[in-house]
Amino acid sequence: MQQLSWDFGNDKIITSLISGNAPDVFEIGSTWGPHFSQSGVLKEITQETRLYRSRYLMWEPVMVQDKVYGFPWLVGTRFLFYNKTLFKKAGLDPARPPRTWNELLRAAQKIKGLSSDTYGYGIAVAEEFAPWHTFIPYLWNGGGDVLSRNWKEVVLNSSAARQTLSFYQSLKPYALLNRQEQIDQMFAAEKVGMILSGAWNFKSIQKTNSKLEYGVSSVPTPKSSQSPMSFGGGEMLVILNKTKHPKEAFEFIRFLTSYEVELSLSRTQRNVLPSLKTALKDPFFEQDSHMKGFAEQMLTAKTPPAHVGWMKMEKILSSLIDRVMLQDEPIGQALEITSDRLSKILNQTQKRGAISDERLTFWILAFLLILVGSLWFLRNRNVPAGEMSTWVLVLPWVGLFLVFSLYPLLYSLVISFSDYHVLTSRFSLSGFSNYFSTLKDPEFLKALGHTLFFALGTVPFTLVISIGLAALIHQGVPWKSLFQAGFFLPVVTSIIVVATLFTFFYSENGFLNFILTAWGIPKPNPAWLINHKWALLSIMAMAVWSSSGYYLILFLAALQSIPSSLYEASRLDGASSIQQFFKITLPQLKPMILFVMVINTINSLQVFPEIFTMTKGGPARSTTTIVYYLYEKGFSEFQMGTASAVAYILALLMCVFAYFQMKVLREEA
Amino acid sequence: MKKTVLFIFLFGSLLISLFPLYLMFTTSLKPEGSLLAAMNELWPRQMTLKNYWDVWMSGPFDRYFLNSMGVALVITLGNIFLALMVAYAFARRSFVGKKLFFGTILLTMMMPAQIVMVPTFIVMKHFGWLNTYWALIVPSLVLPFNVFLLIQYLKSLPVSLEEAARLDGASPFQILFKIVMPLTKPALAVVGINTFLGAWNTFLYPFLLTNTTEMRTLPVGLALYKGVHGVDWVHLMAGSCLAAGPVILIFLIFQKLIIAGLTAGAVKE
Fold first, then answer.
1. CA–CA separation, B35 vs B21, rounded Å?
2. Would you call A382 and B173 a contact, using CB atoms and an 8 Å cutoff?
3. pTM, to two decimals
4. pLDDT at B83 (0 to 100)
5. Quick one: fold of A437-668?
């Protein structure tokens, strides 16, 4: 059994499906249900589940029309947390949480009035899913929705949605805008009065601030008489088509979904609820006011449409929240753009691939074999006798290279000209359409812009800092090796460590904000990485920090190889050390500058792990770079064809860059 | 006087440069829960090693460490030998398809690693290598950049020594390993250090190609730890220190050798 965090689960399941070593029964998040249900990899269990359909909640994610492909297991929803102490301080009744939008707004205002660093409400922004998951309950309660009932059209752009968004905007002056994790943490630290969040908080509040007095309640609605809807989801148990033990697998599912197991998991974990309706009414929930509020909201929770494109749509909807809340884009305009983008996804048809990937593998391997074979055949004509050792030298590396580098590259080249389905590993040829659609996609052009900005912004800084420091160290400073080693330290630190460290450094209560406050310099609000104006710049600064040391050492080496006679001669001519730097040092360094620029540019154009661990391309997609876009296309939208096309476009771009840099610097020399 | 100003300036820059790492270390020592108030103490008033203990107990970090170390060492040695052999052939011999392969090597250098993720995965599946050390090691044995670098370096070496050795009756492999290899040391040092750092720090491939705890490497262990612990900074910083510490220590012990290797190798590039 393997526990996967929400961030990484998706890639992992896909890869284990491709590899064919997935277990018989596994659980998937409800948002991925439609993808898996329609992919044909899951076993249909309509007959087996007939008896249980009315007794359990949340079947929609694993249903395709009338067919059932999974069993709902543990479920959860979003509900309101409120801080009773802050309520008391602000003169509100701690026994009476806000029921309506007006009450919520008034409570938020009053709590905000307590002090400058206390917030009435927490609004999740700058993430892929949370901003939308914490907004959709309001939209539903306000009478709006995203798709029509039959999922044929987008109905987002409605007066209900406009009203809901403008209500949400009216909360902004009294709210903390941040990522869900930060908001949860600030709620536990008594800095935020109310949040819409999930049951994972029970445990984390217990851990960080066990004395916190808080209550839970349903999501506020426009009118007090309404029954409050919220966003629900959960874990679905599914069986693979390939399983050899279908009967045992289903019995195992029945065991996991029995009254006792579901209830005891809910009692011990305290962050999930049973999907069995009778278990939701177990006396246990009467004793625990927090779990009771959670269970009550669960009964009126709703799952989002079980459309294959829904996950992709959620990301777009989350960036709608970012646009309206962070960038203050006019609501009407933002809704219109978002609706357009949603319609495009809705109209995309999913074709089943015609060719299996095993055939492709066969053809590529055959091609490589023929290539090597013909080279072997030709060898006698060109190579003098007795030079067999050439082949011994070349073959180990080239053999491995063919199989582990060239073959995957050719494979992705073929895929870039086809529609490829990761889940079924089948594809059909589609010509240049991936390339055209990528080049036309405004999201791609934006990602290209961010990537170029990143490269053009970091490369010169890295260059100037590393040359400057190297030149100064070369002046003959005492403890030279201390400086060499010290400046190199960030380079040996793993990028995952660096990214974790800087996420901390740039956070709301991080050191950077602390220093700025202490010096009286205004800090951006919201904090760096969740601010669409600063996020990319923050990551760029980090990249300069973490890579300059490496180039510094290279420049130091190049400096040592400049003959000292050049300097002595110019000193006799009366040149100052600054003149020497520009007349002798820089020209002599030219080959190294060229080398560093090319390498650094290639690395910058490929920036990915930083984005992946720190911002996931957000907020409002402001840090989506080309490789992140590629990753998203391939591993969360399952469009391997498009992803491969993006990679080849990027490779071409890098060749062009490298070519021009070499040309310009050679000409100058 | 000038030297003192220079020293002070460089020392200041060094402090700024090392500050984030210092912050990581001190935060990892702060007791859990005290954070919001004590977050910005430069030297924690209360110190504890409990965070390290918690992280260490939460998963087999010793295993992660050994995996990372073993995999990185094998990849480094493999690259040095394989790349030296093939680069020597490229620099000194002529063979059919030489230009074609050289062009291909240049092209592969330009490709983002993410794109071959799925195909690489499929190859591993065909070989039955998923979740094994083979999957972590073999694809990284042939990094094109190393070959490119060595070819450039070997071309700059004089041929005369090798010819003299051949006249004395040395075999091609004796020439390569006894004469050429010592001369190539600086460039091999660059190859070795780059490859080791790359292999030690890589995240995405080990993450996708392994699925049990025993096979995970340190960055994967840390990233999964981060996924579960969110904004629990004291523990995250302790985990980061555990992941970064060993390499920093190794680097500090061997820094003279490493930097000498890098500087000597860089000159000829």
1. 18
2. no
3. 0.76
4. 93
5. MetI-like fold (1.10.3720)
